[in-house]
Model the fold of this input.
Amino acid sequence: MAIFTTPPSETALTLTMINNNPGGCGNDFALDDITFRECVQQIPLAITAPKIPGVAKKPHLILNRLPKKATSMPVKNEAPIVQIIKPQKDTQVYSTPVLKQMAVGFPTPPPVLTTRENALVKRIETEAGEIIINLYDNAEIDGDSVSVYHNNVQLMEHARLSEKPLTIRITIDPSHPHHELIMVAENLGSIPPNTSLMIITAGTRRYEVFISSNEKKNAKVVLDLKE
Done:
């Protein structure tokens, strides 16, 4: 390899080759072995790194802190603010029959729930799980019979109360956090009013609720999922 410099104005080049070793079988090289190349001096590219507070001004330290791929700075994701609107809980005991707005998602209540007073007897907050409800005739067995509605849906019709329980099982969870049980007196038995004992088993807790209803007043028990 040989390096030489030509004036900037020259556009042609003549190469003369002389064989200084006589004899032999011919030329010691072929013409296609000759190549001319322009030599270009490479200038190092200066990199100016961004200033990072608290880091010494050393390029290799700064470059090591940059991402391998050019990306925009990540933006911290903030959780969206979600407003949760729960069904309004009825805490009022009505003194006169009234057509009240039932909880969102409940079916249309039958006339017996809108023309009679629905007196709140008990509200219970409990953990998620299965709830077992047993209904008995309270005190003397006198032929009381009731109809039971769960969230406006009739579960029992003209059920006779006795010393043997009428059993209802419901599940309370985040998808079903609110339950309303309404006992409707179908008769007053031989000893008015219509009375019953409701025993509620929720997990390890046991509740006794004494219920009294008549032809003008129903009895309501509310079960809510504890927050």
Summary: The radius of gyration is 47 Å. The longest helix spans residues 59-64. The beta strands are 117-126, 129-137, 145-150, 153-160, 166-172, 178-185, 194-202, 205-213, 217-225. Confidence is low (pLDDT under 50) at residues 58-67, 70-103.
